[in-house]
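Researcher: Here's my situation. A collaborator sent me these components and asked whether they could plausibly form a single complex. I don't have experimental data yet, so a predicted model of the whole assembly would be a useful starting point for our discussion.
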Amino acid sequence: MSIAVVGLGFAAMLLLMFLGLPVAVAIVAVGAIGGWLGFGMPLVDMMGGVIWSSLNSPSILAIPLFMLLGELMLRGGIADRMYDALAVWFGRLPGGLLHTNIATCALFSATSGSSVATAATVGTIALPALEKRNYATRASLGSLAAGGTLGILIPPSINLLVYGSLANTSVAQLFTAGLVPGILLALCFSLYILAFERSGDAEHAVVPLAVKLAHLRHLVPPLVIFLVVMGSIYGGLATPTESAALGVVIALAFVAGSGRLDLDLLVNSAMQAARTTGMVVIVLTCALLLNITISMLGVTQAVTQWVGSFGLDRLTLLLVLIVFYLVLGAFLDAMSMLVLTVPIAVPMMATVGVDAIWFGIFIVLMCEIALITPPVGMNLFVVHGVRRDGGSFGDVIKGSLPYVAVMIAFTVLIILVPDIVMWLPDSLAGRR
Amino acid sequence: MKIVARMAGITFGVMMLALSFAIAAETLLRKFFAYSFGGIDELGGYAVAIAGPLAFTVAAVEQAHIRINLLHGRLPEAARGVLNVVAAVSLALLALFLLYFTIRTVQDTSAYRSIAQTPWATPLIYPQAVWLAAMGVFAAAALVLALQALRCLARRDWAVLDRRFGPGSAEAELQAELDDLEKRREPQP
């Protein structure tokens, strides 16, 4: 298989996507036609078994369960009250409410799993408070858009689940690997705010400690769920699928305890979870079908040989990949970018000694950047949509760009110090 | 179609909730009482294989299947309309493609009387028959949507093609979230 043919196939897939065809269709069309051209009907016939085995899988089951968990926490109001709780704690820091935005978005999107829901909820609650205290519009919007991206890195993360399925790596280890970089990146955002975003009137009124402590009760349900879900995985007590099931049961108990549990809420949560599961799992299934063609036609070997012919070392190759993903992410949504590139990139990077777990975190960071790079960055649209001041879309873009720079710098940092990612999973696995 | 999606979504939700309770109970019993029902993993696999096509149906009816709105959004109304029809027809073709292979898999299972390589040794025809039915629902829904899109094209009803068959917009999704948020923030009775 020549690299030109691989390029042609990739270009054809992108063209179908840009014409507005469903991404799953574009993937399977190129996969099936490519397979048929290469090996005829026998290869296409193999796809039947793959559809059953890819759907009938415990790792795929984790996706709808985490989706349902997020929906229950969101629709049940568990996530809504985080902002108030965090605002009383962060209000007096320089750039106070912007830190609250980052922290709330990080917690909220990690638990709800949806950028749109995060921006809608946190944005609606935060923007009036930010305006009242004279925070610069761009800084406010940027912190909301960037904060919302943290959820796909901080576990549990649907993107990491999808990566695990595609790269055939341990989801538990990926979730472990995502925690430290996720928290560090949130801290980097806060450091940027401390250093450069000092707009807004400082909160002079001292909030009594008793009030602050009382607000902490709003953080109890999300933290309990997070600790049970992630603690059971980290402690080796449960698989990611089992931890998601435990999370769903506990979330239901909290929602029932708050008196909000009714049929409407359950139906609404089920519909939303089905909707997001459908959009993710169909793309994943089609990508697994494309994988058959990729492996049978030797696409990975062709690309690896071609890239190898440039004689690039690990560092240079990863820097080139950052540029590649920045360009691709400007035009593709994060999930499409993930499923299109992982099957080829993971084996290719293995040849230069890049660990598949580490690469999962790298690629999810690239997906985070894709969420806030124009013209199709999803978070930019949703944060702009929450505004009620009629300002320009350029404000959100300009407000988010510094965070793109922070994320790129952070990516370079994990390239130079891979232990930021690998220390926790290696330690828990007893490898150090 | 909304009713089909609602039924599919509710069935999906019931399956996932029931499974959550079963898996949670199994996990706790196994860890703290060294007792296992056995077979919950297997059951979960069948459940997600069946719930998958139901979820595809909900996403299809609610225009949630991922589409890139880069060039599409910049085209004139008629061109967008034609591409929306092409997208709806292509999704129906994908659903039929998946249904075809599902039928082939079920035929093979039936011919070879395949059983699962698990302690339950489940005859695979039972879960796969339900999987086939779920895939049938997805294919039928996608086909009806494609026919509806073609009918709109025949009538040159560009506005409806945009609204009902365009890529689900971030604005619409956001509005739905904002409405839900407003409802959530209403004081509890």
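Model: Some features of this prediction you could bring to your collaborator: The helical segments of chain B are 2-33, 40-61, 77-112, 125-154, 158-165, 170-185. Chain B has six helices and no strands.
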